[in-house]
Amino acid sequence: MAVEEITSDTSNMLSEWPPGPLDLYRKKASFDWKKMRMLIEGEDVTAFKAKVWRTLEREPLFFHNSWEELTRSEERRLTFARMKRLLEIKFVNEEDYLTNPYLIPAFVQTIGAYNWSLIVKRVLSQEYFVTNAMTNTSDSENLVDDIKNFRAFGCISITEMAHGSNTKDLKTTATFDAKTQEFVLNTPSLEATKVWSGVLGQTATHAVVFAQLYTPDNKCHGLHSFMVKVRDPKTQKPFAGITIGDMGPKIGLNGLDNGFMHFNNYRIPKGSLMNSHADITSDGKYVPRVTASEKTGATLGILSAGRVFITHMSITNLQMAIVIAVRYSATRRQFGPSTEEWPIIEYQTQQWRLFPYVAASYVLNNFFFSLYQDYVDFFVTSFNPVYGNKGEMGAEIHSLSSCAKAVCGWMARDAIQESREACGGHGYLKAARLGELRNDHDANNTYEGDNNVLLQQTSNYLMKLFKEKIDNQKTVNSPFSSVNYIDDYENILKTKFDGDVHNLNSLIKAYRFIVCWLLKQSDTKMNVLLKKYNGDIFRARNECQAYYLRSLAIAFFECNVIERFHTFCSEQSIPENMRTVLNKMGLLFALWTIEKHLLILYESNYIAVEVSNNMTTSVRETILSLCSQLKDEAVALVDVLSPPDFILNSCIAHSDGRIYEHIFDALSHNKGAFQQPDWFTEFTEKKPQILTSDSQLKAKL
Amino acid sequence: MAVEEITSDTSNMLSEWPPGPLDLYRKKASFDWKKMRMLIEGEDVTAFKAKVWRTLEREPLFFHNSWEELTRSEERRLTFARMKRLLEIKFVNEEDYLTNPYLIPAFVQTIGAYNWSLIVKRVLSQEYFVTNAMTNTSDSENLVDDIKNFRAFGCISITEMAHGSNTKDLKTTATFDAKTQEFVLNTPSLEATKVWSGVLGQTATHAVVFAQLYTPDNKCHGLHSFMVKVRDPKTQKPFAGITIGDMGPKIGLNGLDNGFMHFNNYRIPKGSLMNSHADITSDGKYVPRVTASEKTGATLGILSAGRVFITHMSITNLQMAIVIAVRYSATRRQFGPSTEEWPIIEYQTQQWRLFPYVAASYVLNNFFFSLYQDYVDFFVTSFNPVYGNKGEMGAEIHSLSSCAKAVCGWMARDAIQESREACGGHGYLKAARLGELRNDHDANNTYEGDNNVLLQQTSNYLMKLFKEKIDNQKTVNSPFSSVNYIDDYENILKTKFDGDVHNLNSLIKAYRFIVCWLLKQSDTKMNVLLKKYNGDIFRARNECQAYYLRSLAIAFFECNVIERFHTFCSEQSIPENMRTVLNKMGLLFALWTIEKHLLILYESNYIAVEVSNNMTTSVRETILSLCSQLKDEAVALVDVLSPPDFILNSCIAHSDGRIYEHIFDALSHNKGAFQQPDWFTEFTEKKPQILTSDSQLKAKL
């Protein structure tokens, strides 16, 4: 069932949507949803996703429905069993991935849309762990084979209870004992308990453990990783010297077993040290293998992968939420000017709440494909000893993936919430799926870096380049060109808005102005603060975040997203009817995001005084006008993004539009819908000991 | 255990917080948290709440912990049993409520902080139902007595599957049959299924059912309510002719049993008609008792009560979330300029994310107390046949409670989410309670009116007054003075900003300008649209929502909130040290909310050109400066708002500040923390059928 087997006739892979109330709007769309889907993700990906989804729907183990209620232990059992089944089905081989690297995120998205715990458990224990294992330990080949064949189960263990973002200060120790040629692992305090390690709670046999390496002379050489056997694969019990626990219930992702762990003089062989960056001699001398900056570069690359994928997961959640909300809005009717009620999608407020997220679905989808291509280029380059700007590529990918993960995570969060509220009471049903999306998605805004901390990675990168430009006249450019315009910042800061809110180019110019303005302002502010704090960069940066560096990173991201979408829309091969719709979405997205930065454009006088009287109104009226123009496209636009009903699994958003039948189905099938609770005699027989009437009460007083 | 028994020495009722890491900041506060608590809620309320909380903590039935995982059926059973126990304990008598009406919301808040399902179930089945029952049916006295003594259990049934906000179009029918002197209830379609009725799912014996009244001549007289016996109180089974189901799992509030219901020629006696507004003669003639406008006035009053209480519930959630986030931030340390890490509350971003919500907790708390006083005045007046402006009072309360419910609901939603993210990974633990707060609170933004629809109630009210001023020179004023300044709109629109961002008075003036500006702009826009649509007010209003009427209602609310806080802070009796802190919070709240309207102030030239260059920066710098000034007060400020640890029930926010001990407690006590899953042989023995190595795979290809 490898990718080659997929039929080339992709159109046939996509079934027509069933007839029903949604036809009203489907007929009005100006484009063919199947062609649009293939345009925005490529035929291979479309075909691959369709194939995977069909397979899942046929697999008995993957049966589910929208109203089911599982206990945490049932979720755990099912997630594990399904993960195992995924290994058997093996949708893609490594070779397919090399031929079309887009199949990797497509696989993650496709399974994730079905169930996030499942794909997170899969990726953490397989792909992520293998990437770590392959590059480092001495017996890595055997281990990788064990992992792939279910003889071992891996996890990564970094975070401690008291240290997350600040990994440098982790407290777990690995002390080398030259006598036995072993490292001794210890958890020195309650606060140093390893926590949040995914897959550790119930299943992992191996963990990549991050600990402070101590040589026998009691000298600390900083954080290193070790491949540690934590459970006996025969019995699945932790080895003596290790305590492992399951972290229990979380807000979401409860199919995933996050674990915590203590070491008590737990001994591991010398070879457990992941030694690509440094090693230790048998008499206990520490030998670094790469320079600190090389190490940083490599680390940045690996960390970026996680963020690139989380960006994609966020976009997938945003898309699913908006599919649900738009379909519901096109079929739900309420009020109207005459006896016939309007579908609520006809209301300005509903359009204004939802359509910017429809636009975001497309604009961010394109951003992801484009960023992923950059990441693949970087990845390929990093294995090429000749080609030279690995470090620069790594730094730019790091900068882009950091802000992308943060802003996409937040946009998806807001889209899910707006969708939940836009679907009213029915959106509050568990069976609508919006609650599950929100709870599972929530983790994306925290793991692999808190969003606000990540934005600092981007602003640090930008400020560094800007500083070198100012101080040393160094040209600002980068391998993927995201920062090149900054080189022209002096001229950009002299420009004024050309007044054309209907032109994406004009908005890109405005965005570049915002980025340059924030760079300049942040630089000025930083200099003042550095003086105030006698050069203490830590304190200076701290007081330069809100409204400065944080806004800078967000605006920089949005600018880049819009630039990439502009490039995409300019491709000659796009049929004109599709281009028209795509352009409208690009414009809507740009206006909707730039609206939040308009104060900067006023304060900086980028909006000249003589036109300032209506700039805000122009932006806002254009947003509303675009929403109105997209109204008849919206259902087809979300059809493009929608997985099959079985995967979307929402009782308020079936593709047949028969919302009330499906809601009633969910209501009447939930567990115990028509059953009397077994405690009903608590009402019928056992009355509470209260005073029997108001008059008796008064008599008593 | 009535209120009189509560000791007058309130200070003694409040225990000191246990010593621990939070002392660092507690010691720095400029005021006494106990005095502040009594100042902002009154001694009676403080004492009452303390008493209730202590009682709950001692009741075995109310035992809970932060890591417990209950199935829905366990939640239902417990909620029911606790509700029954609350009736036995009877914290307050009706007399106490009359003496101090603030005890009513205090009771709701106190129990709600413990568990929202419990208090919602209690209020819906008791207070809300009784209010409905008492005023209307013929045998209401007996029924009320039955309800209070657990012989009957009531619910309200309005919403149908296809109709929520648009109640006028509900489809359930009640046709009078003169032969038998009965009404015949029918559910004419699947879409007309009654849904969301709280307490109906498993428990109600009686329901106030809203249905279209048909006389025997087949004439429809519109929506009326009927007291319907739905279950036999002896067996708890639905009567023949009624199908009742439980709606199953929801996003939150799963202790509450929402139900759905079908009628199939279900006959109820003639006397079931709730006949205070209209009645029917025995030969089937319809007799209205009140005019339509009288009916509207009375209805508005009843509906307002729900919104007033939801406003309070939202504020309570906002407060609990911010208590958790501030305590966590004051004890969690990460990074730092030297070897000692900083508590994350020291970071500008963290302050900027959280402290505006600390301010909102106080400003909105005061708003609620003030609005509630207005509501009580209205309520008392409505029973007074002489005093004349009931209608005006009702309309103003309706306007205020509508926007209050919407904006407070959203602010609480955002506060909970920001708190969740600000607490990082640990905030994602179920035991942190933020997930539960979010899921339970979510309903507040939908039930008793979708927020966006509610805002239209406020804008309609304002626009009507404004129109009468413009067209008929009618003075704008209202019983509770919330709109009085609008009368002076012409002069207000001529004013300019005085530039003082540190003065709450200046900000109130700016807010009043914003409200008047939006009124004027909306009126102009409406006139254009009315012309465009030939006087069709429905379409005109629809296209005047985003940026106009919606913004108007929000700004009007915020202005009113700030005015009321300003009045409160000016009270002579407030000690100066407390006034200083309160003033800072008022200012922070005002700047933080007005920032979102600054574009209006630019576009309208309220900010004169010569100062516009730094208005945005001034506002923002002042926000940051106030955050920084409040940093050492924040822990004490949330101590004022915090329920006891047992009620707050968050493993990351105990009042002793020992976060890691409590987190570890939650981790190690959750169900199955150290247990092997019973499916572990799925890994150790039953291997998946996959190819055993990459080389074999290649050989096969």
Q: Tags for this entry?
A:
701 residues; FAD (chains A, B); flavoprotein (chains A, B); lipid metabolism (chains A, B); homodimer; Butyryl-CoA Dehydrogenase, subunit A, domain 2; disordered N terminus; 6-stranded mixed β-sheet; alpha+beta; 3-stranded antiparallel β-sheet; oxidoreductase (chains A, B)
Could you please describe the fold and organization of this structure?
- The structure is a homodimer of 701-residue chains.
- Chain A is an alpha+beta fold and 701 residues long.
- Among the domains of chain A are: 32-132, no CATH class; 152-289, Butyryl-CoA Dehydrogenase, subunit A, domain 2, CATH 2.40.110; 458-631, no CATH class.
- Helices cover 55% and strands 8% of the residues of chain A.
- Chain A contains 27 helices and eleven strands.
- Chain A has helices spanning 10-13, 23-26, 33-41, 43-58, 72-89, 94-99, 103-114, 116-136, 140-148, 292-331, 348-382, 390-422, 424-427, 434-441, 451-472, 489-492, 504-532, 537-542, 545-569, 576-594, 598-603, 609-630, 634-641, 645-648, 659-669, 681-684, 694-700; strands at residues 154-157, 173-177, 182-186, 194-198, 206-214, 220-229, 242-246, 258-263, 266-269, 278-280, 286-288.
- In chain A, strands 1, 2, 3, 5, 6 and 9 form a six-stranded mixed beta sheet that branches. A three-stranded antiparallel beta sheet of chain A has the order 4-8-7.
- In chain A, helix 8 (116-136) packs antiparallel against helix 9.
- The termini of chain A are far apart.
- Chains A and B meet through helix 5, strand 7, helix 11, helix 12 and helix 13 of A and helix 5, strand 7, helix 11, helix 12 and helix 13 of B.
